[in-house]
Protein backbone atom coordinates (compact mmCIF):
# COMPACT_ATOMS: atom_id res chain seq x y z
CA UNK A 1 0.00 0.00 0.00
CA UNK A 2 1.37 3.41 -1.02
CA UNK A 3 2.37 5.85 1.71
CA UNK A 4 0.52 9.04 0.74
CA UNK A 5 0.45 12.64 1.95
CA UNK A 6 -2.45 11.80 4.30
CA UNK A 7 -0.27 9.28 6.17
CA UNK A 8 2.72 11.63 6.29
CA UNK A 9 0.61 14.53 7.53
CA UNK A 10 -0.91 12.34 10.25
CA UNK A 11 2.59 11.48 11.46
CA UNK A 12 3.60 15.15 11.44
CA UNK A 13 0.44 16.15 13.33
CA UNK A 14 1.10 13.46 15.95
CA UNK A 15 4.61 14.85 16.42
CA UNK A 16 3.23 18.36 16.89
CA UNK A 17 0.60 17.13 19.35
CA UNK A 18 3.38 15.59 21.42
CA UNK A 19 5.56 18.74 21.31
CA UNK A 20 8.26 16.94 19.34
CA UNK A 21 11.03 18.93 17.70
CA UNK A 22 12.07 16.23 15.21
CA UNK A 23 10.82 13.04 13.56
CA UNK A 24 13.26 10.20 12.81
CA UNK A 25 12.04 7.85 10.04
CA UNK A 26 14.26 4.88 9.16
CA UNK A 27 13.84 1.92 6.86
CA UNK A 28 12.83 -1.33 8.61
CA UNK A 29 12.12 0.55 11.86
CA UNK A 30 9.19 2.32 13.50
CA UNK A 31 9.59 6.13 13.68
CA UNK A 32 10.86 8.04 16.72
CA UNK A 33 10.03 11.55 17.95
CA UNK A 34 12.58 13.76 19.69
CA UNK A 35 10.76 15.28 22.66
CA UNK A 36 12.66 17.67 24.98
CA UNK A 37 15.93 16.18 23.81
CA UNK A 38 14.94 12.53 24.31
CA UNK A 39 14.30 9.96 21.56
CA UNK A 40 10.80 8.51 22.05
CA UNK A 41 9.82 5.44 19.94
CA UNK A 42 6.35 5.49 18.38
CA UNK A 43 4.04 2.50 18.48
CA UNK A 44 3.31 2.08 14.81
CA UNK A 45 4.24 -0.19 11.93
CA UNK A 46 7.76 -0.63 10.62
CA UNK A 47 8.46 1.51 7.54
CA UNK A 48 9.40 -0.51 4.46
CA UNK A 49 11.68 0.44 1.58
CA UNK A 50 8.59 1.28 -0.47
CA UNK A 51 7.30 3.55 2.32
CA UNK A 52 10.62 5.40 2.43
CA UNK A 53 10.66 5.90 -1.35
CA UNK A 54 7.09 7.29 -1.20
CA UNK A 55 8.03 9.69 1.62
CA UNK A 56 11.13 10.97 -0.18
CA UNK A 57 9.16 11.56 -3.39
CA UNK A 58 6.42 13.36 -1.44
CA UNK A 59 8.90 15.67 0.27
CA UNK A 60 11.02 16.47 -2.76
CA UNK A 61 8.00 16.99 -4.98
CA UNK A 62 10.16 15.80 -7.86
CA UNK A 63 10.36 12.78 -10.12
CA UNK A 64 13.79 11.67 -8.94
CA UNK A 65 15.61 8.36 -8.95
CA UNK A 66 15.42 7.81 -5.21
CA UNK A 67 17.84 4.88 -5.23
CA UNK A 68 20.56 7.25 -6.50
CA UNK A 69 20.13 9.58 -3.50
CA UNK A 70 22.79 9.39 -0.77
CA UNK A 71 22.20 12.73 0.98
CA UNK A 72 19.57 15.37 0.30
CA UNK A 73 18.43 18.51 2.16
CA UNK A 74 15.21 20.40 1.60
CA UNK A 75 11.98 21.79 3.00
CA UNK A 76 8.40 20.57 2.76
CA UNK A 77 5.10 22.21 3.61
CA UNK A 78 2.37 20.10 5.19
CA UNK A 79 -0.59 22.29 4.33
CA UNK A 80 -2.40 23.81 7.33
CA UNK A 81 -0.09 21.91 9.71
CA UNK A 82 3.51 23.11 9.57
CA UNK A 83 6.68 23.19 7.51
CA UNK A 84 9.52 20.75 7.91
CA UNK A 85 13.22 20.89 7.14
CA UNK A 86 14.33 17.44 6.07
CA UNK A 87 17.55 15.54 5.51
CA UNK A 88 17.54 12.27 3.57
CA UNK A 89 20.50 9.94 4.04
CA UNK A 90 21.58 6.34 3.56
CA UNK A 91 22.97 3.98 6.19
CA UNK A 92 23.97 0.40 5.41
CA UNK A 93 22.13 0.74 2.06
CA UNK A 94 18.91 1.74 3.84
CA UNK A 95 17.13 5.10 3.83
CA UNK A 96 16.70 7.46 6.74
CA UNK A 97 14.82 10.78 6.88
CA UNK A 98 15.15 13.32 9.70
CA UNK A 99 12.44 15.99 9.83
CA UNK A 100 12.79 19.19 11.87
CA UNK A 101 9.33 20.64 12.59
CA UNK A 102 8.84 24.35 11.94
CA UNK A 103 5.58 25.82 13.21
CA UNK A 104 3.65 27.97 10.73
CA UNK A 105 3.19 30.76 13.28
CA UNK A 106 6.37 32.70 13.93
CA UNK A 107 6.75 33.06 17.71
CA UNK A 108 7.45 36.47 19.21
CA UNK A 109 10.39 37.25 21.46
CA UNK A 110 7.93 37.49 24.35
CA UNK A 111 6.28 34.13 23.53
CA UNK A 112 9.71 32.47 23.51
CA UNK A 113 10.37 34.01 26.96
CA UNK A 114 13.61 35.49 25.68
CA UNK A 115 15.17 38.52 27.41
CA UNK A 116 13.51 41.74 26.22
CA UNK A 117 16.90 43.20 25.25
CA UNK A 118 16.73 40.98 22.14
CA UNK A 119 14.01 43.28 20.79
CA UNK A 120 16.40 46.25 21.08
CA UNK A 121 19.24 44.27 19.51
CA UNK A 122 16.98 43.32 16.59
CA UNK A 123 16.35 46.99 15.81
CA UNK A 124 20.04 47.89 15.52
CA UNK A 125 20.44 49.97 12.35
CA UNK A 126 23.88 48.60 11.46
CA UNK A 127 26.36 45.95 12.55
CA UNK A 128 26.84 42.19 12.72
CA UNK A 129 24.52 40.23 15.03
CA UNK A 130 25.45 36.57 15.55
CA UNK A 131 23.20 33.89 17.03
CA UNK A 132 25.32 30.92 18.06
CA UNK A 133 24.88 27.50 19.61
CA UNK A 134 24.92 23.79 18.95
CA UNK A 135 22.57 22.10 16.49
CA UNK A 136 19.08 22.00 18.01
CA UNK A 137 19.66 24.92 20.38
CA UNK A 138 16.91 27.03 18.78
CA UNK A 139 19.01 29.46 16.72
CA UNK A 140 16.62 29.51 13.75
CA UNK A 141 13.61 30.19 15.98
CA UNK A 142 15.36 33.05 17.79
CA UNK A 143 16.38 34.59 14.47
CA UNK A 144 12.85 34.24 13.11
CA UNK A 145 11.45 36.03 16.17
CA UNK A 146 13.96 38.87 15.78
CA UNK A 147 13.25 39.27 12.04
CA UNK A 148 9.53 39.21 12.85
CA UNK A 149 10.11 42.04 15.35
CA UNK A 150 11.87 44.11 12.67
CA UNK A 151 8.99 43.37 10.29
CA UNK A 152 6.56 44.78 12.84
CA UNK A 153 8.60 47.81 13.86
CA UNK A 154 10.55 48.99 10.80
CA UNK A 155 9.72 49.94 7.23
CA UNK A 156 12.73 48.41 5.49
CA UNK A 157 13.94 45.79 3.01
CA UNK A 158 15.00 42.47 4.54
CA UNK A 159 16.83 39.89 2.42
CA UNK A 160 17.34 36.38 3.78
CA UNK A 161 19.52 33.68 2.22
CA UNK A 162 18.58 30.29 3.64
CA UNK A 163 19.32 26.62 2.97
CA UNK A 164 16.48 25.79 3.11
CA UNK A 165 13.94 28.52 3.95
CA UNK A 166 12.39 27.60 7.29
CA UNK A 167 9.90 30.13 8.69
CA UNK A 168 7.89 31.97 6.02
CA UNK A 169 7.57 35.70 6.78
CA UNK A 170 4.68 37.74 5.39
CA UNK A 171 4.96 41.45 4.76
CA UNK A 172 3.79 43.63 7.66
CA UNK A 173 5.78 46.89 7.63
CA UNK A 174 8.87 45.59 5.85
CA UNK A 175 9.46 44.02 2.46
CA UNK A 176 11.02 40.59 2.91
CA UNK A 177 12.83 38.73 0.12
CA UNK A 178 13.48 35.15 1.25
CA UNK A 179 15.87 33.33 -1.09
CA UNK A 180 16.45 29.58 -0.91
CA UNK A 181 19.81 28.15 -1.93
CA UNK A 182 19.38 25.66 -4.77
CA UNK A 183 16.01 27.11 -5.81
CA UNK A 184 16.29 30.91 -5.93
CA UNK A 185 20.07 31.09 -6.07
CA UNK A 186 22.97 28.76 -6.87
CA UNK A 187 24.87 29.21 -3.59
CA UNK A 188 25.34 31.43 -0.55
CA UNK A 189 28.23 33.49 -1.87
CA UNK A 190 26.60 34.33 -5.21
CA UNK A 191 23.42 35.32 -3.35
CA UNK A 192 25.38 37.40 -0.84
CA UNK A 193 27.28 39.32 -3.50
CA UNK A 194 24.01 39.96 -5.36
CA UNK A 195 22.21 40.99 -2.17
CA UNK A 196 24.44 44.03 -1.74
CA UNK A 197 23.09 45.30 -5.09
CA UNK A 198 19.45 44.73 -4.08
CA UNK A 199 19.14 47.74 -1.76
CA UNK A 200 18.84 45.81 1.53
CA UNK A 201 18.60 47.34 4.99
CA UNK A 202 18.80 43.98 6.77
CA UNK A 203 20.55 40.79 5.64
CA UNK A 204 19.86 37.38 7.16
CA UNK A 205 22.56 34.88 6.24
CA UNK A 206 22.52 31.24 7.19
CA UNK A 207 25.76 30.05 8.72
CA UNK A 208 29.11 31.86 8.56
CA UNK A 209 30.86 28.75 7.32
CA UNK A 210 33.81 30.00 5.26
CA UNK A 211 36.13 32.95 4.75
CA UNK A 212 34.24 34.38 1.76
CA UNK A 213 30.91 34.41 3.62
CA UNK A 214 32.50 36.07 6.67
CA UNK A 215 34.25 38.66 4.49
CA UNK A 216 31.04 39.61 2.67
CA UNK A 217 29.10 39.76 5.96
CA UNK A 218 31.71 42.11 7.44
CA UNK A 219 31.70 44.26 4.31
CA UNK A 220 27.90 44.52 4.48
CA UNK A 221 28.08 45.61 8.12
CA UNK A 222 30.83 48.12 7.29
CA UNK A 223 28.65 49.69 4.59
CA UNK A 224 25.79 50.38 7.00
CA UNK A 225 23.65 47.24 6.89
CA UNK A 226 22.34 45.13 9.76
CA UNK A 227 23.56 41.56 9.23
CA UNK A 228 22.20 38.53 11.09
CA UNK A 229 23.98 35.18 10.88
CA UNK A 230 24.57 31.96 12.80
CA UNK A 231 27.76 30.25 13.95
CA UNK A 232 28.07 26.75 15.41
CA UNK A 233 29.96 27.91 18.50
CA UNK A 234 28.96 27.83 22.15
CA UNK A 235 29.82 31.30 23.45
CA UNK A 236 31.15 34.75 22.52
CA UNK A 237 34.83 33.93 23.07
CA UNK A 238 34.71 30.82 20.89
CA UNK A 239 32.69 32.68 18.25
CA UNK A 240 35.23 35.48 17.92
CA UNK A 241 38.10 32.99 17.94
CA UNK A 242 36.44 30.90 15.21
CA UNK A 243 35.87 33.89 12.92
CA UNK A 244 39.39 35.28 13.32
CA UNK A 245 40.97 31.84 12.75
CA UNK A 246 39.36 31.61 9.29
CA UNK A 247 41.53 34.47 8.03
CA UNK A 248 45.14 33.89 6.91
CA UNK A 249 47.57 34.63 9.74
CA UNK A 250 48.89 37.79 8.08
CA UNK A 251 45.32 39.18 7.87
CA UNK A 252 44.16 38.27 11.37
CA UNK A 253 45.00 41.59 13.07
CA UNK A 254 43.08 43.50 10.40
CA UNK A 255 40.20 41.02 10.85
CA UNK A 256 40.25 41.67 14.61
CA UNK A 257 40.01 45.41 14.02
CA UNK A 258 37.17 45.04 11.52
CA UNK A 259 35.25 42.69 13.82
CA UNK A 260 35.78 45.01 16.80
CA UNK A 261 34.33 47.91 14.79
CA UNK A 262 31.36 46.03 13.32
CA UNK A 263 30.24 43.28 15.72
CA UNK A 264 27.10 44.56 17.43
CA UNK A 265 26.16 41.51 19.50
CA UNK A 266 26.54 37.78 19.98
CA UNK A 267 23.63 35.74 21.35
CA UNK A 268 24.70 32.24 22.37
CA UNK A 269 22.11 29.60 23.25
CA UNK A 270 21.89 26.34 25.18
CA UNK A 271 18.70 24.27 25.19
CA UNK A 272 17.68 22.99 28.63
CA UNK A 273 14.86 20.96 30.15
CA UNK A 274 12.43 22.89 32.35
CA UNK A 275 10.80 21.59 35.51
CA UNK A 276 7.54 21.10 33.57
CA UNK A 277 9.40 18.97 31.00
CA UNK A 278 9.55 21.54 28.22
CA UNK A 279 12.40 23.18 26.34
CA UNK A 280 13.86 26.39 27.75
CA UNK A 281 16.78 28.38 26.39
CA UNK A 282 19.66 29.78 28.45
CA UNK A 283 21.42 32.72 26.81
CA UNK A 284 24.77 34.43 26.95
CA UNK A 285 24.31 37.91 25.48
CA UNK A 286 27.28 40.09 24.58
CA UNK A 287 26.60 43.62 23.37
CA UNK A 288 29.72 45.35 22.10
CA UNK A 289 31.03 48.27 24.15
CA UNK A 290 34.50 49.91 24.32
CA UNK A 291 35.80 47.16 26.62
CA UNK A 292 34.62 44.41 24.26
CA UNK A 293 36.18 46.25 21.30
CA UNK A 294 39.54 46.40 23.09
CA UNK A 295 39.42 42.66 23.85
CA UNK A 296 38.60 41.77 20.25
CA UNK A 297 41.20 44.09 18.70
CA UNK A 298 43.93 42.92 21.08
CA UNK A 299 44.36 46.21 22.96
CA UNK A 300 43.26 44.37 26.11
CA UNK A 301 43.55 40.76 27.30
CA UNK A 302 41.02 38.64 25.37
CA UNK A 303 40.42 36.60 28.53
CA UNK A 304 38.77 39.63 30.16
CA UNK A 305 35.80 39.29 27.81
CA UNK A 306 33.71 37.12 30.16
CA UNK A 307 34.21 39.62 33.03
CA UNK A 308 33.07 42.47 30.79
CA UNK A 309 30.00 40.46 29.76
CA UNK A 310 29.08 39.89 33.43
CA UNK A 311 29.40 43.63 34.13
CA UNK A 312 26.49 44.17 31.74
CA UNK A 313 24.16 43.34 34.65
CA UNK A 314 25.54 46.25 36.71
CA UNK A 315 23.92 49.67 37.22
CA UNK A 316 25.88 51.18 34.34
CA UNK A 317 25.81 47.99 32.27
CA UNK A 318 24.52 47.47 28.73
CA UNK A 319 22.34 44.38 29.46
CA UNK A 320 24.98 41.85 28.48
CA UNK A 321 24.78 38.67 30.56
CA UNK A 322 26.77 35.48 31.02
CA UNK A 323 25.31 31.99 30.73
CA UNK A 324 25.71 31.43 34.45
CA UNK A 325 23.87 34.67 35.28
CA UNK A 326 20.93 33.58 33.15
CA UNK A 327 21.04 30.06 34.60
CA UNK A 328 20.79 31.57 38.07
CA UNK A 329 17.73 33.57 36.94
CA UNK A 330 16.06 30.45 35.54
CA UNK A 331 16.81 28.49 38.73
CA UNK A 332 15.55 31.23 41.07
CA UNK A 333 12.33 31.53 39.05
CA UNK A 334 11.85 27.76 39.48
CA UNK A 335 11.97 27.22 35.72
CA UNK A 336 14.86 24.72 35.82
CA UNK A 337 16.19 22.39 38.51
CA UNK A 338 19.44 22.90 40.40
CA UNK A 339 20.93 19.84 38.68
CA UNK A 340 19.97 21.15 35.23
CA UNK A 341 21.56 24.51 36.05
CA UNK A 342 24.75 22.92 37.38
CA UNK A 343 25.11 20.60 34.38
CA UNK A 344 24.80 23.56 32.00
CA UNK A 345 26.96 26.00 34.00
CA UNK A 346 30.17 27.30 32.48
CA UNK A 347 31.77 27.08 35.94
CA UNK A 348 30.03 24.74 38.38
CA UNK A 349 32.21 25.89 41.29
CA UNK A 350 31.40 29.58 40.69
CA UNK A 351 27.71 28.75 40.30
CA UNK A 352 27.66 26.87 43.63
CA UNK A 353 29.57 29.72 45.31
CA UNK A 354 27.03 32.26 44.07
CA UNK A 355 24.22 30.04 45.35
CA UNK A 356 25.81 29.95 48.79
CA UNK A 357 26.42 33.71 48.86
CA UNK A 358 22.82 34.43 47.95
Under CATH at level 1, the class of the largest domain stands as Alpha Beta
Low-confidence stretches: none
For this entry, what is the oligomeric state of its chains? single chain
Number of helices: 13
How many domain units? 2
Structural class: alpha/beta
Q: Note the overall shape.
A: globular
Counting DSSP E segments of at least 2 residues, the number of strands comes to: 13
Q: H/E series, N to C?
A: HEEEHEEEHEHEEHEHEHHEEHHHHH
Global Rg: 22 Å
Under CATH, the topology of the largest domain can be stated as Rossmann fold
Question: How does the SSE layout of this entry go?
Answer:
Layout: H1 5-17, E1 22-26, E2 32-35, E3 38-41, H2 49-60, E4 71-78, E5 82-91, E6 94-103, H3 117-122, E7 127-133, H4 139-153, E8 157-162, E9 175-180, H5 188-195, E10 202-207, H6 211-222, E11 226-231, H7 236-245, H8 252-262, E12 263-273, E13 279-287, H9 290-297, H10 305-310, H11 323-332, H12 338-344, H13 348-357
Helix pairs in contact: 5-6, 8-9
Amino acid sequence: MAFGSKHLHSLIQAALDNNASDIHIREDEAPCFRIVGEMVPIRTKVFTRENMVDIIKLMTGADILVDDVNELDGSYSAENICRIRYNVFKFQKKFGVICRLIRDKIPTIKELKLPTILADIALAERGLILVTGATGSGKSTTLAAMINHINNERNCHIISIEDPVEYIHTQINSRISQREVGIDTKNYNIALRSALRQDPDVLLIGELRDLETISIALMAAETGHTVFATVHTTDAMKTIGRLISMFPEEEQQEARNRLADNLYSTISQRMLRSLDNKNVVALEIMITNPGVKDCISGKDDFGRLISIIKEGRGKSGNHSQSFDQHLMDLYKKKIISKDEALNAATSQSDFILNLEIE
